[in-house]
UniProtKB/TrEMBL annotation:
Residues 19-129 form the Thioredoxin domain. It is found in: Endoplasmic reticulum membrane. Residues 262-271 have a biased composition (Basic residues). InterPro entries: Thioredoxin-like_sf, Thioredoxin_CS, Thioredoxin_domain, TMX_domain-containing. It is a single-pass type I membrane protein. It comes from Trichogramma kaykai. Keywords: Disulfide bond, Electron transport, Endoplasmic reticulum, Membrane, Phosphoprotein, Redox-active center, Signal, Transmembrane, Transmembrane helix, Transport. This is Thioredoxin domain-containing protein. It holds the Pfam family Thioredoxin. GO terms for cellular component: endoplasmic reticulum membrane. Residues 1-22 form the signal peptide.
């Protein structure tokens, strides 16, 4: 009985030990939508891969070997599954798999050298990455425009899931799903366009409205100018009356002065 129990325990121990050996210990950090910003600090080598990609499977052992030496190289080694994080594939503009990026304190450089272990180690150890031109600021994964593109990639993934659900669960044909998306796109575009037009009208009113407001302002100002001109006309009329009175008085005084001279004339005697 004791022998059988001892044999059973030995077999159980061997099974657990073999299972622990069969389970691979990975030194690669997995990054996704939630923790990808960890690569903005320090030095990183990051691989974009997909489980169905043959070239990615061929690179897997080499990438694990690079991650095993990450402490000696003083770097971090990570990988991103584009099927689980489609937004990151759009943010980094991944067009081919596998794609490798070198990141140093938030500066991104794409690795385009041979994908063998010696080349990867030399790229980091001898700082060959310094000779590679970094990604421009407008294409930087941390920029606003690339963040917007990442949201579009996420949306496309959601639409793909909805399309597959409509075909599998409701039996809709492929053209039916595309028709629904086309109608939805038209209505969504019309709504967004109307919203943008309303915002523009609020910021920059139409010319007709501006002309009407200007006319109203001119009308109120014109009344004041008309009143002012009437007052000027009255003042000018009073001045003219005063001038006329002065002229008439001077004319009367001249006539009075001329009459005594006429009276002083003597009539001639008739011969």
């Amino acid at each position: 009985m004791a022998r059988s129990s001892a044999i059973f325990l030995c077999v159980l121990f061997l099974m657990v030990f073999s299972f622990s050996l069969s389970k691979k210990v990975s030194y690669v950090d997995k990054l996704d939508e939630d923790n990808w910003q960890n690569m903005l600090e320090g030095e990183w080598m990051v691989e974009f891969y997909a489980p169905w990609c043959p070239a990615c499977k061929a690179l897997e052992k080499i990438w694990e070997g690079l991650a095993f030496q990450k402490k000696e190289l003083g770097i971090n080694v990570g990988k991103i599954d584009v099927t689980d994080s489609p937004g990151l594939s759009g943010r980094f503009m991944v067009t081919a798999l596998p794609t490798i990026y070198h990141v140093k304190d938030g500066v991104f450089r794409q690795y385009k050298s041979p994908r063998d272990k010696d080349s990867l180690v030399e790229f980091v150890a001898k700082q060959t990455w310094a000779k590679v031109e970094p990604v421009s600021s407008w294409k930087s994964p941390t920029s606003i425009q690339m963040s917007i593109i990442s949201h579009f990639f996420k949306m496309s993934q959601v639409l793909r899931v909805v399309h597959n659900h409509l075909m599998e669960e409701y039996g809709l044909p492929t053209w039916g799903g595309y028709l629904i998306f086309a109608i939805g796109t038209i209505f969504l575009g019309a709504f967004v366009g109307l919203f943008i037009v309303c915002i523009i009208d609020c910021i920059y009113p139409p010319k007709q409205f501006m002309e009407q407001t200007k006319k109203k302002q001119k009308g109120s100002g014109g009344f004041m100018t008309a009143a002012g001109s009437n007052e000027d006309e009255i003042a000018n009329a009073i001045k003219d009356d005063l001038v006329d009175e002065e002229n008439s008085e001077s004319g009367d005084s001249k006539s009075q002065n001329s009459t005594p001279n006429v009276r002083k004339r003597k009539s001639r005697k008739a011969d």
